[in-house]
Amino acid sequence: MSGDRGLEIVDFHLHFRIGADETIRACEHEAGMHPGGDHERSVRAAGAAPYAAQWRRAWSFPDPEPPAERWQDEADRWAEELRTHRISKAVFVTGGGNDSVADVVDRHPDLLLGFAHHDPYGPDAAAELERAVTERGLRGLKLFAPLLRGPLDDPALDPLWGTAQRLRVPVLIHIGHYGSAGGLTFGRYGGPDELARMARRFPELSVVVPHFGVQHVQELFFAAWGCPNILVDTSGSNQWVRWMPYKLTLEDLFRRCYETIGPDRIVYGSDSSWFPRGYVTRYLDDQLRVCRELGMPDDHLRAIFAGNAERLLGLTD
């Protein structure tokens, strides 16, 4: 049980910070995210800093501190944090590369799981997923669609999707804007139309889209309505609703998602990633409150906050 929340919690979406994630940075470079190199990156970061500080104040979050020098210490800190907040299982969807995140998971296998997160357009991407799952015990694949060098439904990626489908592991695909302020507003590839075409070609592959699809929320709900293997992950502050041209709240997101695809295709995530903020109970409590105020029965709450993740991750029969 998780404190006085009255149900088990399995978190489908966290990030393990391990300094600069070279795996993701390489994908950013290929996508042309920083055409001016390190100088342009530093200028954008400086411009975004006031916005980030304002956001942290609004949410009463402390300033981030650097990750521990030893990844083992960072992993131990996360394990203690999860036990403190009585989170049954947590998935690190990124963590510095497949072997790095697998090492983190192996240190606390009672609590932690991990996803592969290599370049889907890289050489032998399908074989690398097979190795990460069968040899290193990872439970899925995470990718950022805005960083792709080609479309999601490109036949060149079919071996990767086919491998994930055969291994029965989910693919978590971030669509919409990437990064915080100063990040990538749109990707050249990876929109909901590509996602739906890919999902139709691999009907037994579980495709999970985080953050309610960000600015593509309407298109995502339509895609999920048409493809029963598309699921939605609830992770993060979902502050992007403030930038939509129409009024949209966390309650609206849950209500429309629940009414469109039902409780068995909604997966809770927190997007926790850094200390000293640690595990973001604020997001969990807000989401649980909304679901209860919508009158969801206990079995639907159980599915959203634990059961669906357990099924996707192969934790149940």
Question: Can you walk me through this structure?
Answer:
- By secondary structure, this protein is of the alpha/beta class.
- It has one domain (10-312): Metal-dependent hydrolases (TIM Barrel, Alpha-Beta Barrel).
- Helices cover 43% and strands 10% of the residues.
- The protein has helices spanning 22-30, 37-59, 71-84, 98-107, 125-134, 158-167, 192-201, 217-226, 250-261, 281-293, 298-312; strands at 10-15, 89-94, 112-114, 141-144, 171-174, 207-209, 230-233, 266-267.
- Strands 4-5-6-7-8 form a five-stranded parallel beta sheet. A three-stranded parallel beta sheet has the order 1-2-3.
- Helix 9 links the parallel strand 7 (230-233) and strand 8 (266-267).
- The model has no long low-confidence stretch (mean pLDDT 91).
Backbone shape: globular
Low-confidence sequence ranges:
none
Percentage of residues in strands: 5-15%
Could you give me the name of the CATH homologous superfamily?
A: Metal-dependent hydrolases
Rg from Cα: 18 Å
What is the annotated CATH architecture?
Alpha-Beta Barrel
User: Main beta sheet, described?
Assistant: 5 strands, parallel
Number of domains: 1
Protein name: Amidohydrolase-related domain-containing protein
InterPro entries: ACMSD, Amidohydro-rel, Metal_Hydrolase
Domain Amidohydrolase-related: 11-315
Pfam family, one: Amidohydro_2
Name some characteristics of this structure:
single chain, 317 residues, alpha/beta, TIM Barrel, five-stranded parallel β-sheet, three-stranded parallel β-sheet, 11 helices, 43% helix, globular
